[in-house]
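Hi everyone, sorry if this is the wrong subforum. Our group has a chain we'd like a structural model of before ordering constructs, and none of us has done structure prediction before. Sequence below.
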Amino acid sequence: MRGRIKAAILVSTIAALLASTTPARVHPHVFAEARLDVMVNPDHTVKSLRHVWRFDELFSSTVLMEFDKNSDLKLDDDELKDVGDTVYHSLADYGYFQMVTANGKDVEMKPPAQLMAYFEHDQLIILFESEPKEPLKLSGKVNFGVYDPTFYTAIDFVEDENMTINNMPPSCTRTVIRPDPDEALKQNQSKLTDAFFNDPMGTDMSKIFATRLEISCPAQG
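Answer:
Right subforum, don't worry. Here is the predicted structure as C-alpha cells:
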C-alpha cells in the first residue's frame, strides 16, 4: 500500500510540474532547450520524430529530490526509469507536447514506445521517438513543433539548427518559423476567447506561439 501511495505522489508531482492546468499558472514555470530531428523514408514519408529536451537546473533538481529514493544525491538506472515512466504517463493526454500538421490539418502521432531519462551536468534530459499514426507524405506544407497547451512548460529551440530534417527531398525547402507573439494574437483575434486566457486547455490556442519547422514541397495528388 505504501508503494502505491508513494507512486501516486510521484505521478501527481511530476504531472503538476510539467502539465499544470491551474488558471493562475498561465506563464512558464519550467524551461527546457529542445532538439527535433525529422527522419524521412526513401519514399518521402515521415519515418519518425526524434526529440531531446534538456530541462533547466531548478526543475532538474526538483526531479532529483523527488526520485532519489536512496538519498545518495544521484539517480541510478532504476530511479531514472521511474522518471521516464512517470513523465511518459503524465504527458500522454497532451500528445507528448508534439505539434504536427499537414496543410493546416492536425496529424495524429503514435505514442512513443518509451521515454528515456538521464542527467548530464545537473540537468534532466528526456529523449523519445514517435511515428505518425498514418503514413505522412511530404507534400505541400508540413509543420513540426513542440508546445505545452497549458503554458506551464516553455520548450525552446535556441538555434534554428536544433530543428533538422534528414533525407529531405531535393524539391523541398526547410524553414524555421518563430511567430511574433503580438502578430500571432492579431492574426488569431477572432479565435481567442476569455477561456483562452483563463484556461489554456479550453481552446488549445497556445500552439500559435510555438516555434515550428516548416517543410514545403510540391503538392502531390
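For your construct planning: The chain has one domain: 2-20+27-217. Residues 2-19 form the longest helix (18 residues).
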